[in-house]
Amino acid sequence: MAVDRLLPTDESIDLLALVRDLCEHELAPHAAQAEESETFPRDAFRTLGKAGLLGLPYPEQYGGADQPYEVYLQMLEEIAAAWMSVGVGVSVHTMTSYALAAFGTEEQRERLLPDMVGGEMLGAYALSEPQAGSDISSMTTRAVRSGDFYVLNGTKAWISHGPHADFFTTFARTSDDPKHGISAFHVPAGLDGLSFGAPERKMGLTGSTTTLVNYDDVRIPIGNLIGAEGEGMRIALSALDSGRLGIAACAVGLAQAALDLATAYAKERQQFGQSIADFQGIQFLLADMAAAVESGRATYLHAARRRDLGRTFVREAAIAKLVCTDAAMKVTTDAVQVLGGYGYTREFPAERYMREAKVTQIFEGTNQIQRLVISRDVLRSI
Q: How far is the C-alpha of 136 from the C-alpha of 120, rounded, in Å?
């Protein structure tokens, strides 16, 4: 069922039509097979890139589409509903580009950003490490200044796109200061010393390659330092605020797909001489699923509109990520229940949706971390 969206301009309405057409013809038909075979959807990203959908929230002068965040997120939701791995990939790419777009110099933006958001390239966000996930301050990857270069050594973990990425927004320690010793770098793919681990064998999002990224004396020109030395933690956390909204929108898209599947199945499935959609137990279950989807959509749009107005949205982004991803987990689980035994088989995508939903509660900051962000902001405001 097409979501009845409230969009701010005629241009965004036309964009929605384009996205829905691509989702119907270029994404959805290939999702199940690619996830089954664990095939990275690089062609899908190229298709979206050629349509101008890999730089939606960035300025036109740098190759973007100059769309408000509330429009970008609704387009992202549509993509995720058609193919979650691709939706998450677009979110990761957009977050990866954010650091340079928001904190880079004008020279860097003119030199690097058009290729990053113009559609041909795909980015990866290299922040987490094997022993440094939520605790960014325990990062050990190090960048040492050597003449006109920084030399990077260390390992990043859980990096979406891995060897398929064309650039990496990489965070590395430039001093031992726990909070002010991390710096951000733009690292192009293909450099000597850059290598990758084997793809992780994951529960869901199996079409999205996730690997270790190893830096072994990787030399980065000093002109690829993003922001000032020691500003990396602030850059990383700022990018994550926007990235959490991307994951929130993807989670809502996944939940919407599960709701649509469950609704269609309930109307077709016959038991005791009637459609199971006529049973009040199923009706109430579908109603709760719809309420969860709509509530999630409202929270991410509220945060996005604050962002578009230049207002603070840290708490709102955390709330959106928490509410939307918890909703996705519940709605996809309930979709399996509506389909009964068929929901537990791979004949229908319900079980895949449920597996894909779980990680949304974990990446871009676990939902326990979101509760910490929210509670600290609430207590600070009293």
A: 30
Other C-beta atoms within 10 Å of 144: how many? 13
- Tell me how far apart the alpha carbons of residues 282 and 301 are, in angstroms, rounded to a whole number: 29
**pLDDT 10s digits, 264-297:** 999 999 999 999 999 999 999 999 999 999 999 9
Within 8 A by CB and 6+ apart from 368, the residues are none
Q: What is the DSSP letter of 65?
A: -
Torsion angles phi and psi, residue 274, rounded to 5:
-155, 165
Mark out the alpha helices in the chain (DSSP H runs): 10-22, 28-37, 42-50, 69-82, 84-103, 106-117, 232-268, 280-308, 314-339, 350-360, 367-380
Q: Which residues, 6+ apart, have CB-to-CB distance to 157 below 8 Å?
A: 128, 129, 130, 133, 212
Q: Is the predicted pLDDT of residue 230 greater than 90, yes or no?
A: yes
Rounded to two decimals, what is the model's pTM?
0.97
Which residues are marked as active site? 364
Task: Return the number of other C-beta atoms located less than 10 Å from residue 155's C-beta.
Answer: 18
Please give the structure tokens belonging to residue 276.
């199971």
Q: What are phi and psi of 184, to 5 degrees?
A: -110, 145
**Can you give the pLDDT at residue 371?**
97
Tokens matching residue 284: 């109430």
Strand partners, 188: 167
Backbone angles phi, psi at 55, to 5 degrees: -140, 35
| Contacts of 235 by beta carbon, 8 Å cutoff, 6+ apart | 99, 102, 103, 171, 184, 226, 227
Rounded (10°) angle between helices 84-103 and 28-37: 90
Distance separating alpha carbons of residues 282 and 130, to the nearest angstrom: 43
179 pLDDT band, cuts 50/70/90, is confident
Total Cβ atoms within 10 A of residue 356: 30
